[in-house]
Structures are given as C-alpha cells and as structure tokens.
Amino acid sequence: MTTPHNHAKPGDYAEAVLLPGDPLRAKWIAETFFDNPKLVNSVRNCLGFTGTWKGKPVSVQASGMGQPSLSIYVHELINSFGAKTLIRVGTCGGLNAKVKVRDVVLAQGATTDSSIVKGRFDPYNYAPLADFGLLRSAADKADAKGLKFHAGNMLSSDIFYHREPGLEGYGALLDHGVIGVEMEAAALYTLAARFGVRALAICTMTDCLITHAEISAEDRQTSLVDMVELALDVAVEA
Ligand SMILES: O=P(O)(O)O[C@H]1O[C@H](CO)[C@@H](O)[C@H]1O
Ligand SMILES: O=c1cc[nH]c(=O)[nH]1
User: Fold this and answer.
1) Measured from the CA of 182, which atom of ligand 1 is nearest?
2) Domain that holds residue 60
3) 0.95 exceeded by the pTM?
4) May I have one GO cellular component term (predicted)?
C-alpha cells in the first residue's frame, strides 16, 4: 500500500531496513554495499532502496532529520511495508571524553527531550531501549572486527542548536554517562516497542562537543564504512 510519503509497492522492502538520516547516505549505501540495488521510494527525495548483502535481502530508507520525520518513515515501514528489523546508521556528536571521533556508538538506551516520548507515559519516565538481541549481535561483531565501539545512553534531542553555549545545554546528562547526541534513536525505539519489532541505533561520532575535533565533510562518508558493514551484518543475520 502506498502512503503519502512512500510510493513503494507491497514487497518492495526487505524485512531488515537500515535508516540513515541523509537521503544521499541511503543512495551511497545502496550503490556501495548492495548487490542489485533497486530504487523503491523517491517521494520528497527521501530515498529508499532494496538489494542484497551477502546474498540476503536488505533495504535502506532515509529517515530525514529529527524524530517527527523518522517517526513517519518508520511507522509506514512497519505498518505498510512489513519491516521487522530497523537499524539506524547515523552520525552523532560526542558528549564523553572517552568517545573519539570515528568511534562507533551503540545506543543501548536513548534519553530524550522530545514530546514524542516525554509526557506520553505520565507518571512514568519511559526508557527507550535497543533490542537486546541486535545490541548483543552488534557488540559481538564489532569485537570480532576489531572495531572501537562504545555502548551506552544516547541523547536523542529535538534541538541541534541549543540556546545555551557549548555543553551547557546538556546539563546533568553529562554527569550521568550519556555518551553522544543525535536526533532520532528514542523515537525509533519507542515505535519498535509499540509495534513489537526490533530496533537498534548505531552511530559514528563525527563531532566531539568537548574537544571540537570533527571529521571533515570529505572524510565523512568513508569513515562510515565500518558502521554500515557492521549494521548490514547484524541486519541480515536473523
Ligand atoms: O547523520 P544523521 O543520520 O542525519 O544523524 C545526525 O545528523 C543530523 C543533524 O546534523 C541529525 O539527523 C542527527 O541525528
Ligand atoms: O552535534 C551533533 C552532531 C551530530 N548530530 C547531532 O545531532 N548533533
């Protein structure tokens, strides 16, 4: 069934879908890693492709930036296109000195300021979590590949440009082990829990908010190769 945001046909997506924020990253992933990539969605240029990785079907769909955008694509992937395993392949800012630029971050949990999650669970503070099986698989595979990775609490913020300067906007999160900041994982985990599917967010740290080290625009794509290969191996395993 097509949707206002996705003109793919039933069966166009694999059950395992990678979710980068950037549509051009989706295209790059399909063209670089997939065998026989086929464009399945281009509505709003939020590109989606299906192909195979190591002989197994897999898709990639750009989520756009932020939790409202990701929520639309993920809701439709699950409910209209049968997605069962959703793995975000994103970039994040670093909030902890132990995380270096280019390190891979597995978002074990996702703290958020977003009204998509916040307030929905009153009087409780819901803790959006990664699927444990996917998390364990990603950690084991990262170890086997010799990849430097960190697993922990990610901040999924609705705000990229905080009013407060530097690290001030992150307040007590800094003293409580939150390791990185991106803009989508909490909504992904909450939707996955609601609809009984599996989700994991894997990010490459591209901008350290403590040291201000960052990956240059030219290096950004190549530095994501390890993360994408890891995500693809996890995605097609089930
Ligand atoms: O590189 P992507 O996957 O888009 O992820 C990060 O980059 C965007 C902000 O620049 C946000 O979407 C954030 O989550
Ligand atoms: O600082 C950053 C870097 C990447 N993505 C974010 O959301 N924030």
Assistant:
1) 14
2) 16-235
3) yes
4) cytosol
